[in-house]
Structure formats: structure tokens, C-alpha cells
Structure of Transposase:
Amino acid sequence: MHGMNLRNGRVSEVGRIYMITSVTHNRLPHFATTQAARTLIGELIQAQASGLADTLAYVVMPDHFHWLMQLGSKESLSAVVQRIKSRSTRSLRAAGHSAGWQRGFHDHAVREEEDLVQLARYIVANPLRAGLAKSVRDYPHWDAIWLP
């Protein structure tokens, strides 16, 4: 039921920048392998290539991902995130990996006064806070348009 509560009041605005977080089912580390993480990253890249969203920053963690994106005009926010989750699940299962997501996702509509570079730094530093790497350079599953 918690996932349903997250959808209450959700707004989907074309051109709006959102910070998205989605968690795997039971927080299982489905994205702990490079192949699995790259599968999810491929779906983020495909969403951009399809004009669904412009990716500003992301990080794929073993049991969740964070995505700073600007929503395109083709689909709603919920439809875009659902597409990422369903396509990554199908791809991973086809490759013999277990996969699944918790229902729903968390979104934060970024306000104009918020510093996008700071949000991107927060996202890509997630592996440091989780103890998965000592430096962002040591963690391979992230990208941001502002950071080398």
C-alpha cells in the first residue's frame, strides 16, 4: 500500500526536472553485477534516445537507482519510470538473472531555485555513503552531464 500512497498527488509536467528513486523488491541486490547494472543503465539511455526523458545524472546501486531527469513530452512520469523498470526486469530475466521492483517509486519535482549540480553530486556520491567505494571514480555505475 505504501507504493500507492506515493502516487497520490503526483504531477507529471513536460520539461520538469525530477529526482527519481526506485528500489528492488525486498531490496534484493539485483544490480550488484556489472552486467545487471549496465542493463538498467541501457534502459536509461534508451529512454533518452526515445525522447522520453533527458538524463542529467544517475547512479545504479545494488538494490536501487537514483535518476535526475527532465521529462519529455511523449509519456507521463509514471509511464516512463514503469517502462524503465519493466524493460530492465524483462532483459535481466531473459539473461537468467532474478529481478523485480517494489511497486511505485519516489519522485521529487525539482524547484527552480535548487542547485542541479549539487543534486547530481548527491546522487553520484550515493556509493560513497553506502560504503561501496572510497571515491566516485572507483564506482562504475553512474554518470552526470556536469561531472567528469
About this structure: The chain has five helices and five strands. Residues 1-6 have pLDDT under 50 and may be disordered.
